[in-house]
Amino acid sequence: MNDTAPWITFRPELTVLDCTIRDGGLMNNSQFTDDQVKRVYEACIEAGLDYMEIGYKNSLEQFPKDQYGPWRHTYEEDIRRVVGDHSPEETGLKLTAMADAGGKSDWENQIIPKKDSVLDYIRVACYAHQISEAADMVRHADEMGYKTCLNIMAISIVKDAEIDQILNIAKDLPLDAVVVVDSFGNLYREQIDALVKKYASAVKGSGIEVGIHAHNNLQLAFANTIEAIILGSNRVDATLLGLGRGAGNCPMELLIGFLRNPKFELKPILKAIQETILPLKQQFDWGPSIPYHLTGQMNLHPRSAMAWRGSDAPDDYTGFYDKIISDV
Amino acid sequence: MNDTAPWITFRPELTVLDCTIRDGGLMNNSQFTDDQVKRVYEACIEAGLDYMEIGYKNSLEQFPKDQYGPWRHTYEEDIRRVVGDHSPEETGLKLTAMADAGGKSDWENQIIPKKDSVLDYIRVACYAHQISEAADMVRHADEMGYKTCLNIMAISIVKDAEIDQILNIAKDLPLDAVVVVDSFGNLYREQIDALVKKYASAVKGSGIEVGIHAHNNLQLAFANTIEAIILGSNRVDATLLGLGRGAGNCPMELLIGFLRNPKFELKPILKAIQETILPLKQQFDWGPSIPYHLTGQMNLHPRSAMAWRGSDAPDDYTGFYDKIISDV
Question: Looking at beta carbons, which pairs linking A188-191 to residues 24 or more positions away fall under 8 Å?
Fold first, then answer.
């Protein structure tokens, strides 16, 4: 089709991060069992993935233990109960956790020196207006010895001038990557193009990579992830069976089937999905469906769709349509 | 994001075709009730769609009445039982039927003069090696008074030199459109780009439009449809809730939510899905799932995945993986 056919080879510098437990935790208050986390961990290793994000570094005060499972706080003893003295060298897998800005994380205390942790990488997530705290968090995590990245969430509702300002701060931070995060699953291909190019241009020469974290409201998470890869993104997020908030994430099974790096193995992904993730469908709803399509199309947070999908009439699509039309 | 932001406006010459009943008929031997067809028909009118493909013009001999419903043959009396003396002028909707090459259609007898039919448009489908019969079918339908198009199926397994040869024939046929058909749901964005550009280049100056008919094996049907539109495709296929063979088609609810032509209305689409299409999920399986991902990734006909999804262990993904790996 194309004489160059770049999709038949691969870029060795492209790394894949599994955030099944972290993002999926938004659907079940991070109440995964140790066995579930262990099976995902083992699948990540067997599949040859680069990173597994095992949970949030969020505060006990905001997310108390009687309501939230251990993967909302990811204390060292909880992680080690699953992964033991995890060795990145032996397994090929590095562990990450995500800390939210905006008072959700007690990051000064929760992010301990890397020499005392099995974590390798801290990902800081913030909304646009939280960039100054996020920058402090990145610097703290860097001082503690971690690789870091910055995930600027809900980018589809941030104006270009504000994105430019944020990237101007980000380019001088000690970051491994800055990530395009389409939290509302709103963006189309041309919009992803414009954002990835903007991010890449802003961090050019800094050594910072551009990442992609897509949501699947419009069945575009995989397509938009490919698109970012085509444009040079080397930090890619996905989850098993797309598990994640609302419409979910880029499905790992599609991503690994697309990438041509022979180090990746699909079958362990399929096994973990079949045995560990698919049964969760009995407990809560995620993945593309019409309420999520509608919030995605309207560039809205998925919370109203999540509530609708959890109601007695999850498939009353016209009812949900009427509701969100009258809400705006 | 982009100063030109073309996605915020629309091209009036872009037409949308609903092929729910035609393509969905591959899942239930075209055994839709008259009421089901009528509700889809009414939804197409209320939503402002341009075309509804109401069934196949396939032969009674190959597809006998004791096994196949009326929408496999779409005789005039069957269509009129649902649509009456359908008026394209009053409804804004034109009706189409698809005739397959390769002996599946008794087209010399089944395609009657347009003046005696409520159909406006005949779509001829063929595999690459059937192009000569398909060309005869197109000429016959044109002589009978219909607009016509040519759907060259399973294009992901056809070599470039053969596609060029087919397009060289197509450009001289009396066609409204020639359609890029990704029957196996195998193609990625860059491959769609190459094909759409190839088709457009071949028919340039002929007045023939380029169409897109995508399947959803890799959750790329909508993304690839958008991509073709961006590149100038003005004939676009979709189905309600993506109903169609195997992984299904581009979902109409996503397409109509994306297009900005104010003549299109989303709510009638949602209503028909909720009341008429969603209940069919109890009867047969369609839409993206891992077996379809795997046949899509491997550029295979979805028939083995369809059989697996209809078996006692539809979610034994590793079993299916082992099977198709050993089959190739």
Answer: A188/A218, A188/A220, A188/B7, A188/B226, A188/B258, A189/A220, A189/A223, A189/A224, A189/A227, A189/B189, A189/B223, A189/B226, A189/B227, A189/B230, A190/B1, A190/B2, A190/B6, A190/B7, A190/B230, A191/A156, A191/B1, A191/B2, A191/B7
Q: Is B101 helix (H, G, I), strand (E, B) or coil?
A: coil
First to last CA, chain B: 45
Task: Provide the b/e sequence for B150-179 (b: ≥16 CB within 10 Å).
Answer: bbbbbbbebeeeebeebbeebbebebbbbb
Instruction: Give yes or no for residue A54 having a pLDDT over 90.
Output: yes
CB B220 within 8 A of CB B228: no
Structure tokens at A152: 């600027």
pLDDT of residue B1: 42
pLDDT over 60 (residue A109): yes
Beta-bridge partners for A148: A122
Residue A191, pLDDT above cutoff 50: yes
Average pLDDT across chain A, whole number: 96
Show the tokens assigned to B300.
Answer: 């295979």
| Beta-strand runs (E) in chain A | 15-18, 51-56, 94-100, 119-126, 147-152, 177-182, 209-214, 235-238
pTM of the model: 0.96
Q: Which of A63, B205, B191 is nearest to B214 (CA)?
A: B191
ipTM of the complex: 0.95
CB-CB neighbors (< 8 A) of A315 in chain B:
274, 278
Q: Are strands A15-18 and B15-18 parallel, antiparallel or unpaired?
A: unpaired
User: Quick one: tokens of B60?
Assistant: 């009674």
Which is nearest to B153 in space by CA: B311, B23, B288?
Answer: B23
pLDDT in tens, A258-286: 999 999 999 999 999 999 999 999 999 99
Cα→Cα distances B225→A2, A237, B120, B252, B268, Å? 19, 24, 24, 11, 21
Chain B residues 278-317 within an 8 A CB cutoff of chain A = 278, 288, 290, 293-294, 297, 315-317
Res B3: pLDDT: 54
Rounded CA separation B221/B188 (Å): 10
**What gap in Å lies between CA A287 and CA B18, rounded to an integer?**
24
Query: Residue length, chain A?
Result: 328
Q: Determine the topology of domain B6-282 in CATH.
A: TIM Barrel (3.20.20)
CA distance A146 to chain B (A): 33
B276 in A contact zone (CB under 8 Å) = no
Residue of A nearest to B316 (CA): A274
CB-based contacts of B108: which residues, under 8 Å, 6+ apart? Answer: B140
Is a pLDDT exceeding 80 seen at residue A246?
Answer: yes
Q: Give SS3 for B238.
A: strand
Question: Which positions in chain A touch B199 (Cβ < 8 Å)?
Answer: none
For CATH 3.20.20.70, the residue range(s) in chain B are: 6-282
